[in-house]
Structures are given as C-alpha cells and as structure tokens.
Design brief:
The chain is an alpha/beta fold.
C-alpha cells in the first residue's frame, strides 16, 4: 500500500471462473502469495463463475465436458442436481482449499496506464497498481442481442439465454427460439414439451456432428478459433466450429419435428415475426439464444483492440501490451482450454516479474 491508498500487488487476476481460478492456482504454485503478491477480484456474489447463473433445468448430468480445476477433482457429483449448485459448491471448496482469497463482489470499472510501468486497476473494492494483469472475465456479462426491424413493437416477452428461467414459464405459450448453438437446442427441446407451439430460427443451417469428437478434431476446432484471435478478429466460440453433437435426445427431437429449422426472419411484428416471402408466425415469446461477447470493455483505456474489432493474442499475451494476459478468451473459452491458459498465463507472468524490475 502506498501513501495514496493504492494497493500494489505484483499481479491482479480479474474473474474467478474456471480460467481465473486456474491462473490463481498456478500463480500460487510459482511461489506468489494470495493477497500479498497477487489478488483475485470477482464481481459475482458467490463462487461458481458463470455457472452460478445457469438455469435450474441445466442439471450437472446434462453438462458437456466439464473439466476439473487443476489440483482438485470434482468427484461424486449428483447428476440430477442443478449444475449451478454442483459447480458452485466445487469452486467454493476449491477456493478455500487452496486459500485463494477471492475478493467479491468487486466490479472492475477500468484498467488504464499507471505510473512507473504499472497498470492501474480501478474497482469498487479499491485501486490496484499492478505489474501484470490476468483478465479472466469470460462472456456471461455481455449477452448478444441482435437487432431487427420492429423489435420494439413486439407485445410479447423477449429474453436472452442469460435470463432463461427454465421451461415451466413457457407452458401453453407460442415460443420462437433464435439461435443454432447448444443453448438454443437445449432450450428448444425443453420448451417444446410444455409450449403450445415452438419455432426454431437460425441464421445458418445447423450442422449436426455424427460420431465421436476426439483429440484431433478438438485441436482442429481450437486452431480455427485461435487463428481469428491471432488476426485480431473478435473470437468465435469453440462450439461454433465443432457443430452440434447428435445424441439420442437430439435424434428424438428431430424425428418429432422439434428441430425443424426456419431461416432467419426479416422483421418482428407486434404479434410475432415475419419473413421476406410474406410468411408470418404469431408468438408470445422470443427467446434469443444468440450467444455472448467477450466482457473486456474495462480494458478499453489500454487500446488493445485491433482494426478488426478483437484483441490480438499470442498464446495468452495481448500483443499490444505484454503485461496483459487474456484467459478464457477465444480458443481458451472451454473448461479444459481455460485450465491450460491459466497455467500458461501464470508462467508467463512469473517470467515477466523475474525479468522486469519492480
């Protein structure tokens, strides 16, 4: 702490989801001490990262590919319990076991250039002057809402995946689900069991993936996402290039006509949606399962974005500022990718601290 009330940890980690906790764990493994050498700031009210906000019907048994955090397995979980509860409790136990001392709820408003080569992290919990930053803020706080003509005239309800309450609230209603990703198909299959009518609308025809998805396919998918990040383009999710797994539930839904896809509508009307060819559908609800964008607005003062709109990243390091590492961004947005990125960022930051004078 200096004379102006600013804390001066060597490293600040923003976000305590999978990527942030992985980074904190590996920072501690390098010999840095939580709350002395590094601090972890998290805006959420409790442990669990974005998982704590998932809808109740997403049980742990429905979660695809949840990878354990480094150093502690998640064992004996009840697959029928909500994933928010299971993973929230796991993250809580993890933080306590490794003494990571996450500060929450703390909102980071901005990161800007400080004095003496330090970055100034301005937050609701105080100001931190740090030598390195690991940003692990994910995407959950930036749901993407597309805009279509007439959207403001719709007399029904519009909501996003981020506020999806589960299928019960849609009983007896006519529902348009927009989005061809995993969340959109999960929502649609649940809602179809209770709704009066459902319609599935996507910009592109969905791609269903037959067969297993092995390491080779995984590496190829990650490489495609990684290339965009290297070019400074906004990252795509890994699932956007892998396609949708064709499991038994999806096969049944296709046979029943639930997953009969319609092309994107042209406009929204007071009573529903309309296409350019004159077709219309009446609806009570439009559910936007249209994904999320990286929550990095607080980094804007550092001017890290490229002309293409994204932040160019090599491994985990922002090309425009080697003090800044982004984990859980682009190719590391999966749970296993977040783990690996957390380790890589911690090691890179450790090397930086050794070579650059305090």
């Amino acid at each position: 702490m200096n004379n102006f009330g600013t804390s001066e940890p060597a490293v600040v980690v923003i976000g305590a989801g999978q990527a942030g906790l992985s980074a904190a764990y590996h920072l501690a493994r390098t010999g840095l001490e939580p709350d002395r050498d590094f601090v972890v700031l998290d805006h959420a009210p409790r442990p669990g990262g974005a998982w704590q906000f998932r809808w109740p019907s997403l049980t742990y048994g429905k979660v695809h590919g949840m990878h354990a955090l480094p150093g502690m397995e998640l064992t004996g979980a009840d697959g029928s319990r909500p994933s928010s509860e299971v993973i929230g409790a796991y993250f809580d136990a993890y933080e306590r076991h490794f003494g990571l001392r996450v500060h929450r709820p703390v909102d980071v408003g901005a990161v800007r250039e400080g004095e003496g080569g330090r970055l100034l992290v301005e937050s609701s919990g105080g100001t931190y002057a740090t030598r390195a930053l690991i940003n692990a803020t994910g995407t959950w706080d930036r749901p993407f809402w597309p805009r279509y003509p007439g959207q403001e005239t719709f007399r029904g309800r519009q909501l996003h995946t981020a506020g999806y309450p589960g299928p019960a609230e849609f009983a007896g209603l006519r529902v348009v689900v927009v989005g061809g990703g995993a969340s959109g198909t999960q929502h649609l299959m649940e809602i179809a069991e209770v709704a009066a009518e459902t319609y599935w609308v996507t910009r592109r025809p969905p791609v269903f993936r037959e067969g297993s998805f092995g390491e080779e396919e995984g590496r190829a998918a990650v490489a495609m996402v990684e290339e965009r990040v290297r070019l400074g383009l906004p990252p795509q999710s890994v699932v956007s290039v892998t396609g949708l797994p064709l499991n038994d539930a999806v096969r049944r839904a296709r046979e029943q006509g639930v997953l009969d896809r319609l092309p994107m509508f042209e406009r929204i009307t007071p009573d529903g949606v309309a296409w350019a060819d004159g077709r219309t559908v009446e609806a009570d609800v439009i559910l936007w399962a249209t994904g999320f964008r990286a929550a990095v607005d607080h980094l804007a003062p550092l001017k890290l974005r490229e002309p293409g709109g994204g932040i160019r990243v090599e491994n985990t390091q922002a090309v425009r500022d080697p003090r800044v590492h982004l984990v859980g961004y682009g190719p590391s947005a999966s749970t296993i990718g977040a783990n690996r990125a957390g380790r890589a960022a911690a090691r890179a930051v450790s090397r930086l601290l050794e070579t650059v004078p305090a």
